[in-house]
Amino acid sequence: MQVEETPLKDCYLLKPKIFRDERGIFLETYQRRQLAEISGIDAEFVQDNQSVSKYGVVRGLHYQTGEFAQTKIVRAIYGRVLDVVVDLRPDSPTFKQTYSVILDDENLYQLYVPKGFGHGFSTLSEKSVFAYKCDDYYRPGSEAGIIYNDPELAIDWQLPENDIILSEKDRNLPTLKQAFG
Ligand SMILES: Cc1cn([C@H]2C[C@H](O)[C@@H](COP(=O)(O)OP(=O)(O)O[C@H]3O[C@H](C)C(=O)[C@H](O)[C@H]3O)O2)c(=O)[nH]c1=O
């Protein structure tokens, strides 16, 4: 596995080693010891999630607040997504900065998203299967988010606006200014 820094502090792009042969491919999608040795990252993951989305779906930007904030390792098992994170840690040198990267079933890249980040993704293929590890449990009462079209963040989800599909919850998320001043 290769671990690359991103422009956002403590957020890393993980590039697993892919073994290819005439049958197809094999890769270790998570290996705690190797990740810790390479990067010093040693989160204790307790929950795996998976979502399936059709083309045009944007999920996010979401995060859990306070002591229930989640570190995540996210990846696309099938299809192609644009993964987007925003640093929402007021003390961070990259506070309010965003980073986006294509995760798909060809590059098999993963993104390490630290606690205190907002996270979302858009589905660019006909269908995406998205999986991620969390180092804390789902706490409905601590869920929060920033609206996908926040004017300060100006995220390009790489989708025509008319194609974007959002949940009712995501349509009503606050702006960055409303949430963080
Ligand atoms: C996140 C979560 C949801 N749920 C239930 C709650 C709802 O009844 C249903 C769908 O939840 P939601 O609409 O919040 O799912 P997403 O929009 O995919 O949310 C996720 O999307 C972005 C990309 C993230 O990074 C977060 O991990 C997560 O918020 O699953 C659970 O039971 N457990 C969970 O951990």
UniProtKB/TrEMBL annotation:
One of its GO terms (cellular component) is cytosol. Catalyzes the epimerization of the C3' and C5'positions of dTDP-6-deoxy-D-xylo-4-hexulose, forming dTDP-6-deoxy-L-lyxo-4-hexulose. Keywords: Isomerase. Homodimer. The record marks 138 as: Participates in a stacking interaction with the thymidine ring of dTDP-4-oxo-6-deoxyglucose. The active site is at 62 (proton acceptor), 132 (proton donor). It catalyses: dTDP-4-dehydro-6-deoxy-alpha-D-glucose = dTDP-4-dehydro-beta-L-rhamnose. Its EC number is 5.1.3.13. The keyword Isomerase applies. PANTHER family: DTDP-6-DEOXY-D-GLUCOSE-3,5 EPIMERASE, THYMIDINE DIPHOSPHO-4-KETO-RHAMNOSE 3,5-EPIMERASE. Belongs to the dTDP-4-dehydrorhamnose 3,5-epimerase family. The keyword Isomerase applies. This is dTDP-4-dehydrorhamnose 3,5-epimerase. It holds the Pfam family dTDP_sugar_isom. GO terms for biological process: dTDP-rhamnose biosynthetic process; polysaccharide biosynthetic process. NCBIfam families: rmlC (TIGR01221). Pathway: Carbohydrate biosynthesis; dTDP-L-rhamnose biosynthesis. It comes from Christiangramia oceanisediminis. InterPro entries: RmlC-like (IPR000888), RmlC-like_jellyroll (IPR014710), RmlC_Cupin_sf (IPR011051). One of its GO terms (molecular function) is dTDP-4-dehydrorhamnose 3,5-epimerase activity.
